[in-house]
Amino acid sequence: MQCVVEPPLTRIMAGEALSRMVPPAGDHVSTHNERRRLMAPDIAARKGGEPIVALTSYHAHTASIADAHCDFLLVGDSLGMVMHGYETTVPVPLDLMIMHAKAVVRGSKKALVVVDMPFGTYEESPPVAFRNAARVMKETDCGAVKLEGGRRMADTIRYLVDRGIPVMGHIGLTPQSIHVLGGFKTQGRSIDQWHAIEEDARLVSEAGAFAIVLEAMTAPLAERITGAIAIPTIGIGASPGCDGQILVMEDMLGLSPRVPKFVKEFGAIGKAIDRAIGLYAAEVRSRTFPSQEHTYAVKGGDSAASPANVVAMATDTNDAALAASRATKKPRTPRT
Ligand code: KIV
Q1: Which residue in 81, 285, 293, 335 has a CA-CA distance of 20 to 30 Å to 205?
Q2: Catalytic residue at 283?
Q3: Neighbours of 193 (CB within 10 A)
Q4: Probe ligand 1: pick from 52, 186, 217, 246, max atoms within 8 Å of CB?
Q5: pLDDT block averages, 10 residues each, the chain of length 336
Q6: Residue whose CA is at the smallest distance from ligand 1 atom 5
Q7: Which residue's CA is minimally distant from atom 2 of ligand 1?
Q8: Which domains does the chain carry?
């Protein structure tokens, strides 16, 4: 059940910030894309409408699959833990985010791509945040950045949005602050904490963010925030009452070894990979793979043409050296 609190001033202010942000595509810019990508204002316009679907994505192949189903793809700094084996997101460097973001942009066509600003690249001051966020936008061609923090980031969000960088906020459990929070802890368990978190959401919204992630917080708190602010809330471990939902793709696919309570595994990809690799290993060991269907025949269909025979045949034509090198050359692996 959503608790609807209507502060019209908040909505007007956020609306103004959004209209400052990006001109609607096609108004006065020529475009050669058949179908333009979603942009931050498209997501903002979904407040209170059809739920916004989002997933994290870190590489081109999964981005191209998720693109067909998602409104935005987040190149989350969770990639440090999921793909690179860090224990937290704190060590993730900006260059790594940029590398993965480029792949996700190349792999997708339709979804807005949002890139996480990693720890240490935006907290110091608005100009530092701008320099790093502008680098992310220019080098990756993504459509927005995300940064963690409530009121403490409001000035920075306003500074970025005023200079053309759409920002998604992120409050509740903010994993980059794990060492201050003392662990990956659910926020707002006690009603005493609610006011501060609601204020964080309001200030991020009023600063001009186009949407805000609410991570690991109690459902009634997430519902109050959703009803109170002008921008879409994107829940992860929050509430079905949020304006949209996001999960880490590997978690929902059943690929992550351990997942938080709020994750539903919609697939069992980890088990499928384990089974497939086990079968492969067994077939290699028993020499049943590769079978004839996965090897190359000699042109002309002469299956007796072993490398030695080919050399012998070529000697007759005084071209043994060339034939030997051709016959021993490894076949090219076809691209999948
Ligand atoms: O880094 C990430 O994947 C995120 C999501 C959990 C929202 O920030």
Answers
A1: 81
A2: no
A3: 14
A4: 246
A5: 37 45 51 76 98 98 98 98 96 98 98 98 98 98 98 98 98 96 90 97 98 97 98 98 98 96 97 98 98 93 55 48 49 45
A6: 76
A7: 76
A8: 35-252 (3.20.20.60)
